[in-house]
Amino acid sequence: MDMEPILDVKQLTMKFGGLRALDKVDLDVYQGQIVALIGPNGAGKTTFFNCITGMYDPSGGDVLISPPKNGRPQRINGIKPNKVTEKGLARTFQNIRLFHNMTVLENVMIGCHCRMKAGILGAVLRGASTRREEEAVIQKSYTILKKIGLEKYVNDFAKNLPYGAQRRLEIARAMATDPFMLLLDEPAAGMNPQETHELDELIIRIRDTEGISILLIEHDMKLVMSLSDRIFVMDYGKKIAQGTPEEIRKNPAVIKAYLGEEIDA
Amino acid sequence: MEYFFELFLGGLTRGSIYALIALGYTMVYGIVQLINFAHGEIYMIGAFTALIVISVLTMLGWNQIAILLIAAGVAVVYSSAYGYTMEKIAYKPLRKAPRLSALISAIGMSLFLQNYVLLAQTSDFMPFPGLIPDFEFMEPYAHIIGSPELVILITTAIVMVLLTIMIKFSKIGKAMRATAQDRDMAMLVGVNVNWVISVTFIIGSATAAIGGVLIASHIGQVNFYIGFIAGIKAFVAAVLGGIGSIPGAVLGSLVLGWTESFFTGYISSDYEDVFAFIFLVLILIFRPAGILGRSTAEKV
């Protein structure tokens, strides 16, 4: 493949005092791929997400992105989370972090706003251009909610939604920021098999119709194996394997990490 | 009955002024969980700025109402600049520090600003011209409510409505609510949190400055210490209503205004503050989170 990866993480290291939560981790994602990051609890997967999205400033290594729209690679480690979002990476959380006291529509509108121009003066004076922009934001938010299948909840408070719908709303809000890549942190956590199945379809639909690449952390192996083009495996802060689902299934290091057994030949 | 109405409107006017100041406390608390003790000083600086502008323009012989509007405008801009700078200097570097550190920094800021104005303007009470004219159409009601009170009430009402519209419907309003609920998450959906915090300080300072000009013009004098008393009262009002909640701040301010007004009117003016604070203690015993405060209350 002679294309540049849209996300290229090189030798990423994160130290907390003496603990190396991430130790020289490499990972890359190409346009249109669904990539899974798996590993036992405490392997450093969420820390990895936090370093990429600007919540932590990594102790070492590089995070490079090449957005498909303007291809030149740029380094994004150390910049603020809102700047990372502006550059086109959006994420969701393991524990749901919606704005609970805002409506579903408002939650999505907040996401759209980082692409908007209107300032405070416009907000108070409500000139024609501000109103038009606001109108466009509502339109766009509604379209996204429809795609995700949440349109019947538009005016409900986020906290009143059923669990599965709250998870999907997190994805809708992330999509509202116009990302080229979504980072999903355990999107299927706590879902029943039916909801997981719908999520599976939703993620594939987002990739196929929106052209958004996906990097996800997930423990549900069935989901990971059916969904992913490639899988990266971490354990104790280190990358221990990478490959297609087929390769990962057979990889002895992965089996060892998960089952904790010595491998006898 | 007429006396009751007079006290009722007097309390409403007082409460409106407290509300203009309490808004700044409660909004800042909602966003950064900081009690900005220097907020009263912003109000005082607003009043002084207006006084200076008024003195200059009066010498030039301008129209009274034009002077008032320009003075209020300059006071708003100047106070906002102070609020913005204060946040950048005294609070932003401490954002990740324990809350007590920021609180101490706020108290330091308050003392600094008081003494800075003391040195620049002396400790004397300075006369502040009453610029709000007596409207003719108010003549028949003058024994119940004066024109200045009416102006105060209307101005406060307009500020409240504008603020509510802004927070409910505008982009920055949504960003403020989002930041209050979950700052990190707000950043991750692309909200520039630093800007949101600055705007919160600017808006709080602007409303405090409006309050400063109105009350200085109503009472007729200012000195470097007025911000302390007014700040404490407004803080009490914000806590009374449930700190972090905007409707709470307004309600708490009105309750405080009425308490003071009625106790002064029916019992004794000597014990005005005593009654107000007894009332505060009673409310907080039965509703520790304030009148509208709930653990899950919508902040901002």
How does this model look, in words?
- The complex is a heterodimer of chains A (265) and B (300).
- With 265 residues, chain A is α/β, with parallel strands linked by helices.
- Chain A folds into two domains: 1-88 and 179-265, 3-Layer(aba) Sandwich (Rossmann fold); 98-178, no CATH class.
- In chain A, 39% of the residues lie in helices and 22% in strands.
- Chain A has ten helices and ten strands.
- Chain A has helices at 45-52, 81-87, 104-113, 120-125, 128-148, 163-175, 193-210, 221-227, 245-250, 252-259, and strands at residues 7-16, 19-29, 34-38, 60-65, 74-75, 89-91, 181-185, 213-217, 230-235, 238-243.
- In chain A, the strands form two sheets. Chain A has a six-stranded mixed beta sheet with strand order 6-7-8-3-9-10, sandwiched between helices.
- In chain A, strand 9 (230-235) and strand 10 (238-243) form a beta hairpin.
- In chain A, helix 3 (104-113) runs parallel beside helix 6.
- The mean pLDDT of chain A is 87.
- Chain B is mainly α and 300 residues long.
- Chain B has one domain: Orthogonal Bundle (ABC transporter involved in vitamin B12 uptake, BtuC), CATH 1.10.3470.
- Helix content of chain B is 74%, strand content 1%.
- Chain B has eleven helices and two strands.
- Chain B has helices spanning 2-32, 39-59, 64-91, 99-121, 147-169, 171-181, 183-188, 193-219, 226-241, 246-266, 272-286; strands spanning 126-127, 221-222.
- The longest helix of chain B is centred in the first third of the chain and has 31 residues, at 2-32.
- The radius of gyration of chain B is 19 Å and the shape is globular.
- The interface between A and B is medium-sized, with 35 and 26 residues.
Give the CATH class of chain B: Mainly Alpha
State the major sheet of chain A. Answer: 6 strands, mixed
Number of helices of chain B: 11
Strand segment tally of chain B: 2
What is the overall number of helices of chain A?
A: 10
Proportion of residues in β-strands of chain A: 15-25%
Strand content of chain B: under 5%
> What would you say the CATH architecture of the largest domain in chain A is?
3-Layer(aba) Sandwich
Write out the strand line-up for the largest beta sheet of chain B, numbering strands in chain order. 1-2
User: Which range best describes the helical content of chain B: under 10%, 10-25%, 25-40%, 40-55%, 55-70% or over 70%?
Assistant: over 70%
Determine the fraction of residues in helical runs of chain A and give it as a percent range. 25-40%
The main β sheet of chain B shows up as: 2 strands, antiparallel
Mean pLDDT of chain B: 87
**Mind telling me the C-alpha Rg of chain A?**
19 Å
